[in-house]
Amino acid sequence: MARASRLLALWALAAVALPGSGEEGDGGWYAFVRPVILQGLTDNSRFRALCSREKLLASFGDRVVRLSTANTYSYQKVDLPFQEYVEQLLHPQDPTSLGNDTLYFFGDNNFTEWASLFRHYSPPPFGLLGTAPAYSFGIAGAGSGVPFHWHGPGYSEVIYGRKRWFLYPPEKTPEFHPNKTTLAWLRDTYPALPPSARPLECTIQAGEVLYFPDRWWHATLNLDTSVFISTFLG
Questions:
Q1: Helix H or strand E encompassing 154
Q2: Could you read off the pLDDT of 38-80 as tens digits, one per residue?
Q3: Burial class of 58 by CB neighbour count within 10 A (0 to 12, 13 to 18, 19+)
Q4: Across the chain, which distance is largest between two alpha carbons, in Å?
């Protein structure tokens, strides 16, 4: 089954690059202009075991981590011990909190201090010529997430929990407030969107990977307390 999933993913990311093989009008370059969910590509069971709450606290509890605010531009940074973050801040999101009042551990990783963990992670076996992948590791509570933003292409894998994604192509700017959390957007804005203004949506389960194309708008919502890692391509 894993082999079949791997072959399907290879087809999705490579074979569809042939002109005319994709949807009408997209020139066949599906892998470069559409998100793709990947399954069964790598075995990260060892990495998953090392990402349990007990293992992470034992290995990194006294390490200082840098938190970002959960808004579009993430201006504010706060440093505190990892154990303090887990024990005091890793709780379900308050729907009334603004993004700049919500601290989120994702992206600002000290690669030297976390190298003993990252060396056990196997990213998807696809990349961009002339670029080196960069990891962003995160842990967040249920209901947390980042509102709409965009950047270069990459992958996002869920290790524990589930993560819901909302995506728009680059030419379609979503309706959102940069300081409102994704949870608030889902409650206040999403229900009133007409069908033509709805985003592409998916929920990534533990062990699944989402490929997000270059400059696509996206917002995320952790449905459970979640551990996740992104691989940015270039």
A1: strand 154-160
A2: 999 899 999 999 999 999 999 999 999 988 887 777 667 889 9
A3: exposed
A4: 54
**Range among 17-21, 174-178, 215-219 with highest mean pLDDT value:** 215-219
- What is the architecture of the domain spanning 30-233? Sandwich (2.60)
What does the DSSP assignment read for 1-59? -HHHHHHHHHHHHTGGGSTTSSSTTTTT-HHHHS-EEE-SS---HHHHHHTSHHHHHHH
Residue 113 in tokens = 């201090």
Computed over every residue of the chain, the mean pLDDT equals 84
Residue 164, helix vs strand vs coil: strand
How far apart CA 103 and CA 129 sit, in angstroms, is 35
Which residues are paired to 168 by β-bridges?
A: 217
Convert the pLDDT of each residue in 114-137 to its tens digit.
889 999 999 998 887 777 888 999
Look at residue 100 and tell me whether its pLDDT is greater than 90: no
Provide Rg for the chain, Cα atoms.
18
